[in-house]
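User: Could you go from structure to sequence for me? I need the amino acid at each position, not a summary. Structure tokens:
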């Protein structure tokens, strides 16, 4: 369908950007990366203690720079037996700038002596939406989670991050073994975006109605009429 407005997703992670684009496919929006919207992308230090704090910080910074409706996600893996780690440090669990493979290896190392009964985990996601043109300074935050456990070795070639180690509850497969459609039905990010989508659609509809009133033309719809 034809996009009627653009939003920026504050991430440089290609896998995450592709997933969000797919999950917002029913909205008539063009999903841009910061590199698409800005000639000079600011480096946002994710120093918050919670996923919500980091998501809000990223969304606020990119919204202020781009002056566009901005969505930011902060998500990670929470392992009960590790006291909630990697948590907000999921992307840099092994070290600053660590690769997915290095983070997975570090997780396996720290859990190598733990039995199945001590491998419960969940993916958690917080998504913030910031509208720099709102007089009220609208900020929306939604959350989603996906329960599972940590495998003893990586399996599957799909996804990114800890997907090859995360066995989805009730699936007996890792997230990396699921198809894109399957993952987009049960993932933590999918659940968070499902909560956000009607709120985002309402903002888009309001923006289009305002534009149409100014131009004296009927507004297009923000939602696909499939």
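Assistant: Here is the amino acid at each position, in order:
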């Amino acid at each position: 369908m034809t996009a009627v407005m653009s939003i920026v997703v504050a991430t440089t992670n290609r896998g995450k950007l592709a997933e969000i684009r797919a999950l917002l496919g029913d909205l008539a929006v063009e999903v841009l990366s910061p590199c698409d919207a800005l000639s000079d992308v600011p480096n946002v230090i994710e120093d918050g203690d919670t996923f919500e704090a980091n998501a809000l910080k990223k969304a606020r910074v990119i919204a202020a720079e781009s002056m566009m409706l901005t969505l930011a996600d902060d998500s990670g893996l929470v392992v009960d037996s590790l006291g909630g780690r990697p948590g907000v440090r999921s992307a840099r669990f092994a070290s600053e700038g660590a690769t997915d493979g290095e983070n997975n290896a570090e997780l396996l190392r720290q859990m190598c002596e733990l039995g199945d009964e001590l491998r419960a985990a969940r993916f958690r996601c917080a998504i913030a939406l910031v509208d720099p043109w709102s007089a009220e300074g609208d900020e929306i935050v939604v959350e989603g989670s996906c329960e599972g456990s940590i495998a003893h070795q990586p399996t599957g070639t799909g996804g990114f991050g800890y997907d090859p180690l995360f066995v989805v509850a009730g699936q007996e497969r890792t997230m990396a073994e699921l198809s894109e459609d399957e993952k987009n039905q049960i993932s933590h990010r999918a659940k968070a975006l499902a909560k956000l989508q009607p709120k985002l659609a309402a903002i888009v509809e309001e923006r289009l109605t305002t534009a149409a009133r100014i131009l004296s033309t009927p507004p297009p719809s923000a939602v696909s009429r499939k």
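One structural detail worth keeping in mind: Helices lie at 14-23, 34-37, 51-66, 100-110, 180-186, 188-215.
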